[in-house]
Design a protein that fits this description.
Number of helices: 7
CATH topology: Rossmann fold
Shape: globular
Number of domains: 1
CATH class: Alpha Beta
Radius of gyration: 18 Å
Oligomer: single chain
Largest sheet: 6 strands, mixed
CATH architecture: 3-Layer(aba) Sandwich
Order of helices and strands: EHEHEEHHEHEHH
Number of strands: 6
Helix content: 25-40%
CATH superfamily: Flavodoxin domain
């Protein structure tokens, strides 16, 4: 089993990342579950804006897309800025839009996207509010793209109102709610990833579209 975690911090390597600190806990728990994990920082790559799989010269998104193709578990980890998920996170969602209109990402027989039979979850860190809204946006987008979203696959930590202490300085590593929701998340992601690997989703999207077209025709 393989997991890909994208750290959407706005800080390039090797600068310290609070989001990265929460990722390390997830990494360790995935390792304990027998899952090989790769973590990348999006800002360390040249990811051009757009909705295509490859936006041309210098675009490094295709390399990340290859890593995603080989992963059973996909986790997006985002900080919160001004109450919203980071712009880097939104860019991932926008670039994954290519799955809808690029034939290379769909099974020729069933029409299933490459995201089918893969699970997704998210981690969120920040000050004050925005964790629920960020998780909702990420997880909705992931299911729309074809990922399976098991129950309880988000974990977050946010600091006190007006405080400047982030995940590590604010004691997030010792915070019960964050710790047990993270364990729920990893347990459910690994379970469903194994389940889907052994029992792939059988839906033939092409056949279902034909049925929908028949019942949608006007007289």
């Amino acid at each position: 089993m393989k997991a890909l975690i994208i750290n959407c911090t706005l800080k390039p390597s090797p600068e310290f990342s609070n989001t990265g600190a929460l990722i390390k806990k997830a990494e360790q728990q995935l390792k304990e579950s027998g899952v090989t994990t790769e973590v990348i920082r999006l800002v360390d790559y040249n990811i051009k804006p757009g909705t295509e799989a490859d936006m041309g010269k210098g675009d490094e998104w295709p390399a990340i897309l290859e890593k995603l193709k080989n992963a059973d578990i996909f986790i997006i980890a985002t900080p919160i800025w001004m109450g919203h998920l980071a712009s880097t996170t939104q860019r991932i969602i926008e670039r994954l839009d290519a799955i809808f209109h690029d034939e290379q990402f769909a099974d020729k027989e069933t029409g299933q996207y490459i995201t089918y039979n893969r699970v997704a979850g998210c981690l969120v860190t920040g000050n004050e509010d925005g964790a629920h809204a960020s998780a909702a946006q990420i997880l909705w987008a992931m299911q729309e793209l074809g990922f399976t979203i098991p129950p309880n696959v988000n974990a977050y930590w946010v600091g006190m109102a007006g405080d400047d202490k982030d995940y590590v300085e604010g004691g997030g590593e010792r915070y019960l709610y964050t710790n047990y929701t993270l364990r729920w998340m990893i347990a459910n992601l690994t379970y469903f990833a194994k389940l889907l690997k052994a029992n792939p989703i059988p839906s033939n999207l092409k056949a279902l579209r034909v049925l929908a077209e028949k019942e949608s025709k006007n007289d």
